[in-house]
Amino acid sequence: MAEVLVYVDHVDGAVRKPTLELLTLARRVGEPVAVALGAGAGDTAAVLGEHGAVRVLTHDASEYADYLVVPKVDALQAAVEAVSPAAVLVPSSAEGKEIAARLALRIGSGIITDAVDLEAGDTGPVATQSVFAASFTTKSRVSKGTPVITVKPNSAAVEAAPATPAVSELSVTFSAQATGTKVTGRTPRESTGRPELTEAAIVVSGGRGVNGSENFAIIEALADSLGAAVGASRAAVDAGWYPHTNQVGQTGKSVSPQLYIANGISGAIQHRAGMQTSKTIVAVNKDAEAPIFDLVDYGVVGDLFDVVPALTEEINTRKG
Ligand SMILES: Cc1cc2nc3c(=O)[nH]c(=O)nc-3n(C[C@H](O)[C@H](O)[C@H](O)COP(=O)(O)OP(=O)(O)OC[C@H]3O[C@@H](n4cnc5c(N)ncnc54)[C@H](O)[C@@H]3O)c2cc1C
Predict the structure, then answer these.
(1) Ligand 1 pocket member 251 (CB < 6 A)
(2) What backbone torsions phi and psi does residue 285 show, to the nearest 5 degrees?
(3) Looking at residue 159, what is its pLDDT?
(4) Are the C-beta atoms of 20 and 47 separated by less than 8 Å?
């Protein structure tokens, strides 16, 4: 069976969930071979094996932390040359997409970005994308070279598929460009304790209807009852009620969680563009004619100041 390379996103050996989702998808197309780079790369093998990686290729060098993406591209290219995979899968983060694009250019391959599903096809993997502000769903496959495909977080369930991976060191020679852009400093982001917006399984968002930064506390309380991330519409962000890092939509972040709860958000096309591929969509809006109700699975016509606290209380009670 053909092998499929999976680029591992990890922090000091702790593998992030989107990589485990990629392993689920990779198994539909071939045998997953994981590529883990940088500090702690060797520590990823156990969890990657639990999720179906048959091989883990590791490499650690200070270049991965000291410079931007090119050293990682060099390593992934070395892995492609060593394995001759049927496809290369990379998480659709900003960094992942840059790595994937540079790799595709280097190896002369076609690339598909922001896939939301992947299946085996007669002539290579077929990727599903949600395009043009989520108004069309397309299926496509790469017709040139080794397909390089980036996949959005939450596109597949994490499934255990225990394997005992063979761990080996990847031989990497860094290119002249590898040290072209040096990282000169790092500032850790202030932690809210909530999951990363683009990776969260549940997102609870607030819009203009929340009517003030202080009122976002009720959105945060609902999010915390569900272990969710907090999102915001551009109207709420422009009003200064919530940071731009939390904006969902065309000029914000694109999310695709299992559950998206929109509170006091009308459902403008630019907002929908960032959340329409969510698996289950719930909206709370006091206007029964609000366009958001056209795309929801469950809609509550009501005042969010009544509905959201009541929902939070009920969830907390049921959690016991
Ligand atoms: C180029 C461009 C890019 C854009 N990018 C984005 C983007 O990335 N993300 C984004 O979100 N927008 C974006 N926008 C803006 C977008 O067009 C809308 O203006 C914005 O999404 C509206 O935000 P909203 O739904 O919170 O506000 P509104 O449209 O004002 O809707 C507020 C809703 O809250 C409801 N409401 C009010 N009070 C309550 C209450 N007490 N209880 C329940 N419901 C209540 C109202 O009925 C209404 O439906 C962009 C626009 C442009 C032109």
Answers:
(1) yes
(2) -155, 140
(3) 96
(4) yes
